[in-house]
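wait is this the right file?? whatever heres the structure
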């Protein structure tokens, strides 16, 4: 099957044989009772108990293996064949145990190999009948052929049922995985829709309001009133913050553009000079492109809010091992990342990147600027 086994699929597989242990135990007890009633053969009983011990050690795991055969199945079947043949030659009543040993063999091995073991199991009772009753060899042969054929049909049915149970467990695992992926996609779509709605609302209210206030204040600056100048400066700063918030909330600017073009658009629209370099032929899936653009938006927003930088450097490169790396560095005041908790924007960036199997690293020190590096697998 390959891959880790989902717990729910494993439980579904184990439910395929809910009463098998009880059935096996009942048949072995019934066989021992039949031997005791017929006069008892302690050695045969001991041999049957050894079969039970073999089942506890190896057989229990073998009949529940999701893919057969496993090494424990071979060990158990081999031990069972030797012990049962000896028990049957000592006490013919041991043949009652075949009603449990035959289906167990087909559960532990593939059908063709199980039929071969079945023939070997019937050899003991056949030899015992010929030795005790002197039956005609042809009759014994016919009895063996009929018995083997009937039990082989039963075994093939059991083998097919086992394969169906394996396939059902795999389908349950895939269904659960698909359901989780759909839930994640639906959640992400809801988040993006809400972000887009918020961006539109902010643009239609706060941004336009700040723009109007700024226009009025700029018109009133002719009087050289310092309070008006301060108010105009504050309105301008808040308008810039509002536009940055709209840019962060809006969908990534990837429609009709490559990743390099979208990042270039962000760099050109930033207030500070941004030196952008691209190394290698970066080719990644759309989810990875969107995550990188979002990370660039958030990284530039953090530079605007906190860095007090003069220049910014944005680097995008394909790295060995099928991954892509983007870094945003500034020459601002910097800080010690180990001494400061992540803000909301950086936490959101880490979560978005982590969902795609990537990592985010923040490095820097006071007075020496800050670098945010994002690395994502190209497989997305």
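ok assuming it is, sequence goes like this
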């Amino acid at each position: 099957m390959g891959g880790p086994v989902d717990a729910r699929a494993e439980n579904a597989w184990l439910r395929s044989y809910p009463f098998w242990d009880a059935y096996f135990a009942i048949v072995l007890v019934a066989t021992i009772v039949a031997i005791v009633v017929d006069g008892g053969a302690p050695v045969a009983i001991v041999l049957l108990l050894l079969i039970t011990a073999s089942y506890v050690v190896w057989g229990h795991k073998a009949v529940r293996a999701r893919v057969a055969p496993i090494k424990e199945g071979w060990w158990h079947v081999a031990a069972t064949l030797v012990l049962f043949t000896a028990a049957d030659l000592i006490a013919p009543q041991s043949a009652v145990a075949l009603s449990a040993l035959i289906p167990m063999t087909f559960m532990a091995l593939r059908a063709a190999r199980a039929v071969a073991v079945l023939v070997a199991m019937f050899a003991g009772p056949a030899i015992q009948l010929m030795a005790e009753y002197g039956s005609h060899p042809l009759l014994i042969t016919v009895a063996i052929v009929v018995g083997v054929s009937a039990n082989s049909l039963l075994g093939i049915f059991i083998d097919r049922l086992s394969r169906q149970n394996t396939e059902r467990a795999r389908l349950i695992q895939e269904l659960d995985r698909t359901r989780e992926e759909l839930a994640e996609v639906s959640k992400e779509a809801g988040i993006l829709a809400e972000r887009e709605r918020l961006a539109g609302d902010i643009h239609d209210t706060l941004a336009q309001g700040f723009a109007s206030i700024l226009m009025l204040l700029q018109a009133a600056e002719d009087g050289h009133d310092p309070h008006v100048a301060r108010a105009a400066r504050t309105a301008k700063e808040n308008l810039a913050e509002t536009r940055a918030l709209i840019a962060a909330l809006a969908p990534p600017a990837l429609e009709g553009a490559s990743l390099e073009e979208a990042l270039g658009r962000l760099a050109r629209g930033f207030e500070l000079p941004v030196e952008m370099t691209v190394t290698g032929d970066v080719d990644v899936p759309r989810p990875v492109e969107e995550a990188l653009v979002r990370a660039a938006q958030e990284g530039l927003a953090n530079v605007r809010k906190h860095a007090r930088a003069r220049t910014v450097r944005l680097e995008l490169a394909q790295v060995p091992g099928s991954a892509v790396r983007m870094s945003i560095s500034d020459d601002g005041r910097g800080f010690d990342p180990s001494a400061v908790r992540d803000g909301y924007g950086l936490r959101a960036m880490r979560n978005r990147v982590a969902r795609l199997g990537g990592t985010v690293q923040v490095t820097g020190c006071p007075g020496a600027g800050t670098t945010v590096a994002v690395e994502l697998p190209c497989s997305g």
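Strands lie at 274-279, 312-319, 323-330, 359-364, 370-377. so i think its the right one actually
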